[in-house]
From TrEMBL:
PANTHER family: HTH-TYPE TRANSCRIPTIONAL REGULATOR LMRA, TRANSCRIPTIONAL REGULATORY PROTEIN. Pfam families: TetR_C_13, TetR_N. Gene3D superfamilies: Tetracycline Repressor, domain 2. The lineage of its organism: Bacteria, Bacillati, Actinomycetota, Actinomycetes, Micromonosporales. This is TetR family transcriptional regulator. GO terms for molecular function: DNA binding. Residues 24-43 bind DNA. Residues 1-61 form the HTH tetR-type domain. It comes from Virgisporangium ochraceum.
Length: 185
């Protein structure tokens, strides 16, 4: 693994663990083993490195969300996405960044986060429309609204799990929304 890739990978993990504000360039260098000169050769600033790490985190998130866009039965895709394994106690690599004031206040850092959530929202809306058209969900459900609800349940489930240091609240939220979807078919 080259030093640039190692720096991005390390920053990605540290931001997931600590957030942007609580991750220093020194932390990245120490964990990655990459020297200061090499770090600043690739990334002139912490912010530049953070943008690359955020883009990497988005790249990790979007393939999972693209499962919603795939072929096959829409409700099966919804259930598979909701039930896929997640590290509930670590939270969402992308959603976690919205809790960091420095990320929220910097349009450049926030842009990849907002873009990722917009893409996931579009994927949810698409699969929900398919499920309505296939009569797997009631036709009076609003896919746009329901997509926001599903995203909020998952992100909120992470917050509850982290707060209680127990994956149970995430699993209960996910299972609860899945039960509601099944009742609305």
């Amino acid at each position: 693994m080259d030093s640039r890739h190692l720096l991005v990978e390390t920053m990605s993990e540290l931001m997931w663990e600590r957030g942007y504000a609580d991750t220093s360039p020194r932390d990245v260098r120490e964990r990655s083993g990459v020297g200061q000169g090499s770090m600043y050769h690739h990334f002139p600033s912490k912010r530049d490195l953070a943008v690359a790490a955020l883009e990497r985190n988005v790249a990790d998130l979007l393939p999972a969300a693209s499962e919603l866009d795939g072929p096959g039965d829409p409700m099966a895709r919804i259930e598979a996405y909701l039930m896929r394994p997640r590290e509930a106690l670590k939270g969402c690599k992308v959603g976690r960044m919205t809790q960091d004031r420095q990320v929220r206040e910097d349009p450049v850092l926030l842009a990849p986060v907002a873009r990722a959530f917009a893409q996931v929202h579009r994927s949810w809306v698409g699969v929900l429309r398919e499920a309505v058209a296939a009569r797997q969900l009631r036709d009076d459900l609003d896919p746009e609204q329901l997509a926001h609800t599903l995203m909020a349940v998952l992100q909120g489930g992470y917050v509850l799990a982290i707060a209680q240091q127990d994956p149970g609240p995430f699993e209960a939220a996910r299972d609860g929304v899945l039960a509601l979807l099944r009742r609305n078919s």
